[in-house]
Amino acid sequence: MTMAISRGTTLSSALDGLQHTFDGMRRRVAQIKARRAAYDRTFTELNVLSDRELSDIGIARCDIRRVASEELSKEQTYEV
């Protein structure tokens, strides 16, 4: 990401722009971490179930990764 500073731009406003950029990046990283944690929780919870328990809820063991991924797409974006 490149940020050009024009002659009319003060150092303070340039730093404010950088701060805004870094704040956005931090929020995005936090969202990614939260989504990964939710995926890991769902995957782990399903993976510890027996084949019989999975069958009772209509999930095959080979579908656990897909189901965990689909659950993430149903969730709202995390606000951090």
TrEMBL record:
It comes from Sulfitobacter dubius. Residues 34-65 form the YjiS-like domain. InterPro entries: YjiS-like. This is YjiS-like domain-containing protein.
